[in-house]
Write a structure and sequence with these properties.
This protein has 139 residues and is mainly β. The chain contains no helices and 12 strands.
Amino acid sequence: MEDTITSDDILGKQAIGPNGSILGVVVKLHIHKQNKQITGITIDQGFMKPDLFVGLEFIRNFGVDTVFLSRMPFNKYIGMQILTADGNSLGHVRDFVIEHKKIKEFVISNRISKHTKYIPAKAVHTIGGSIILKANYKE
């Protein structure tokens, strides 16, 4: 039984993103009814923030005190601001286009112009508190 863990080993543990940021605390374990396999976890992100479902494919490993994610769940990007390399805001992420289990494009909306734009994922330089595009990105 050394290779198994229980829900007690997962629930209440901190979930850490691939960049080392604390996403919150694991509050639920999701199990598929028919095949009885874990499908993911729910993370409580804190006061006034929605719970975050994380599929098993985003989990790198279950540590002693922490659940480590291999990559950020896609829905974590919803609402993030997208900035050009020189700091101009293009809008906020409303949705995304997924291809082969990766984000192909971010769908953004701008509150001022009310237009929807598609930003290719390959144009992204870095993601932190906001999404910053590469200097060579042209609209």
